[in-house]
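A favour, since you know our structure tokens better than I do. Go ahead and set the record down below.
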Amino acid sequence: MKMISIKKSDWAGAMEKVQKSYRLAGPVKEKKGHTFRELKDGETPDLEYSETRMSVKEVVLPQSEVMFSYSLDENKEGHHILEEVPFDETPRAAVGIRPYDAKAVEILKKNFITDDYKDPYFERRYENLTLVGMAENNPSPVNFSTSCGTGPFDESCLDIILADAGDNYIGKVLTEKGEKFAAAAGFAEGDSGIEAKIAELKEQAEGKIKSKVSFDKIEKMTILDLYEAPFWEEVAFACINCGTCTYACPTCWCFDIQDEVKGKDGIRMRNWDTCMSEVYSVHTTGHDPRHEAWQRTRNRFMHKLKYYLDKYEDGIMCVGCGRCVSQCPVNIDIRKVCQQMNDYEPSK
């Protein structure tokens, strides 16, 4: 495992160098805070950020992605035939991604890359991506990532992990992908004390996380025990089904596919969708199994905290970033809902 050290004054130069061979995405400061997006030439990932409002899942699952194009003009060769939009094979890197957001990418992978089915759009982005993490020295008050099997210094899903050590960024190269990125950026090899310093910063950061959730009892309950629990209408009383929680969430994977035509030129595209929408679960017959708003709220929490837990037996479908907590306009808190589910005792 190679240790690296980068002076903050050299960071912009290193990123300029690496952009010659990688397409970069990273945190950028905008009017309403930081966002994580693909960078333009000359833009530098801002590692001094605290959080990004929108999810970073866009690096593997774009908010809107054109899949096919076609022509309805019968005078053109190949009319009415879908043609796949070419994919840019240039290596990509998400630089400055939080370690728990990298864990979210692995959760998305469970849905899009399986033994039975591989989504080619997700897979080619995932396989082409290097994840350069930025550890979080000062987690926000709503962060509960350590309860979700990850944390502000989790290395498990990263190719490189960096940490802020004052005048320098220090880090570890964790994978072969990470080695290639470090070489392209010209990162200097650091001294043997870096590993101990990162361990110290990790202990301090995890100690600042006071928010916890438990799901040990949820795991033992049946789906119907929780599905038929009496508290769902109360949980959803304030919910306006706006979908903010799902769009901000790094592990939500719902999407819709639509055709758009202008004149005789058309495209087929995939867009993020939300299970909180009234039309999301409507059948072609017009029947809606989740017609009531509280039923859609129940479905969201059941999926995150029970369905996924039972199917994959690998924890809950949440990395504890806290975005849904801080951005919900009516203050619905997944931590409280999780605790309510965990404390529930079904009648025998």
About this structure: DSSP finds twelve helices and twelve strands in the chain.
